[in-house]
Design brief:
The protein has about 450 residues and is an alpha/beta fold. The chain is built from 13 helices and 16 strands. Helix 7 packs parallel to helix 8. The radius of gyration is 22 Å and the shape is globular.
């Protein structure tokens, strides 16, 4: 689709936004949101006619790209048939979405509780775990993000938690493995895994095993840096949970539905949690939808005992119709396989080539369509290119990198000292190479702030 140039319309959209829209995670007077005129596939464009290759997939949710015609048609068809209905009834798109999701979740995660997004999924997963165990404490990792609602933000391990952390949520944080910036002084993955598991065991011992309802982990942490856990770690957490009667919750909100080259990231580790949260890629964000996939044992807890939770729009027909169509598209067009293939044959080798030329790249991490570049001032010391949670002038190197990306037609996903490479899972080889070429240009701006400059 050719972008339609209409600066006057764009100015009106921007003016209304600045007058009335309150944006998340922002100082309202310091932001300048782009007025978007349209989007299709892996691209979006503004009213000035500037087109951008989206290496963010929105917020890592447009796994099938923008405006897929089959999903748009499914939403239109459902709207004409039954646009909405209360959650207490059985309606076809809700039942079919649950069936298709349960077919793809690991193990016996065969019951699906629908929410409107990922944060609500975490809220309800924790509530289920607490009621199932009769315990209150929940353990979560630093370097994590689980959502912006009360329980989810307290579980979160990045600075977005700080303003809302009241210290009374029953949440305890611990260090998960991350060899490149190890909290355990490990020298290899085996040491990192063993020491991280021992640290978790020690945390449990001092917090009281009988007080802990759940351990919540992103299977592969997303916004915090795409840090694939070392072999054996998630299996070790599973064993610890089994030993102490703790519910194991995997957060697949970002990593699920093809993002890592598997339907769910847990498949890479052959681990089945007790509860699994999802959202984002389940219908590529076309209509808000999330949920919790529930094991047989936890579902049994609520067979005769009412579950004290629900949402007015749980399993909304339009959202579920979009999920059904999205899953069908992913099967028909082999989107999961494409994510794995392009990740292995284009993104991975392309990023390695960039690392050979750019001293600002400290480490490359990822799989499928889920990658991060850890940018540094000095490869030897691994000092981040900008300080932790930097803002203003301190964040200038990353701002310069981002500006160079946008100037050359790429919209980057930037968080702290990292840029993530997370295009739609059906990105083409040509599009992936186009994005890598722009990264090559933009990384020169980051290189100017390294000790090698």
């Amino acid at each position: 689709m050719t972008p339609h140039v209409d600066p006057q319309a764009g100015a009106a959209v921007k003016a209304a936004d600045r007058a009335h829209v309150f944006h998340s995670w922002s100082a309202q007077g310091l932001i300048d949101p782009l007025a978007v005129a349209g989007a299709e596939g892996s691209y979006f464009w503004d009213y000035e006619g500037n087109r951008y290759l989206d290496f963010t997939s929105g917020l890592v949710f447009t796994n099938i790209g923008y405006q897929h015609p089959k999903v748009v048609a499914a939403i239109q068809e459902q709207a004409a048939k039954l646009a909405t209905f209360a959650p207490a009834f059985a309606v076809e798109p809700r039942s079919e979405a649950a069936r298709l999701i349960a077919e793809r979740t690991p193990g016996d995660l065969d019951k699906i509780f629908f929410t409107n997004g990922g944060a609500e999924a975490i809220e309800n997963a924790v509530r289920m775990a607490r009621l199932h165990t009769g315990r209150n404490k929940v353990l979560a990792a630093y370097r994590s993000y689980h959502g912006g609602t009360t329980t989810a933000i307290n579980l979160t391990g990045d600075p977005r938690r700080w303003a809302s952390d009241n210290g009374t949520s029953g949440t305890v944080h611990f260090w998960a493995p991350f060899l490149y910036r190890s909290a355990f002084y490990a020298e290899n993955e085996a040491e990192e895994c063993a020491r991280a598991l021992q640290h978790l065991e020690d945390t449990i011992a001092f917090e009281g095993p009988g007080a802990i309802a759940a351990i919540v982990l992103e299977t592969i942490p997303g916004t915090a840096g795409v840090m694939t856990p070392p072999p054996g770690y998630l299996a070790g957490v599973r064993e610890i949970c089994d030993r102490y009667g703790i519910v194991f919750v995997l957060d697949e909100v970002m990593a699920g539905f093809g993002r890592t080259g598997k339907w769910f990231a847990s498949e890479h580790f052959d681990v089945v949690p007790d509860l699994m949260t999802f959202a984002k890629g389940v219908n590529s964000g076309y209509v808000p939808l999330g949920g919790v996939a529930i094991s047989g044992a936890i579902a049994e807890t609520f067979e005769k005992r009412p579950y004290p939770g629900g949402l007015t729009y749980s399993g909304h027909p339009l959202a579920c119709a979009a999920a059904v169509a999205t899953i069908q598209v992913m099967e028909e067009e082999r989107v999961v396989e494409n994510a794995a293939h392009i990740g292995e044959t284009v993104i991975a080798p392309g990023l390695r080539e960039l690392a050979e030329r750019h001293p600002s790249i400290g480490e490359i991490r990822g799989t499928g369509m889920f990658w991060a570049l850890d940018l540094v001032k000095d490869r030897e010391t691994r000092e981040p290119l900008v300080p932790y949670n930097a803002s203003g002038a301190a964040n200038a190197p990353m701002a310069a990198f981002g500006a160079a990306c946008k100037k050359n037609g790429l919209w980057p996903f930037i968080n702290m000292n990292r840029t993530h490479v997370v295009p739609p899972c059906n990105v083409t080889e040509a599009e992936a190479k186009e994005g890598l070429a722009v990264l090559d240009i933009a990384l020169s701006a980051a290189d100017e702030h390294t000790t090698a400059a």
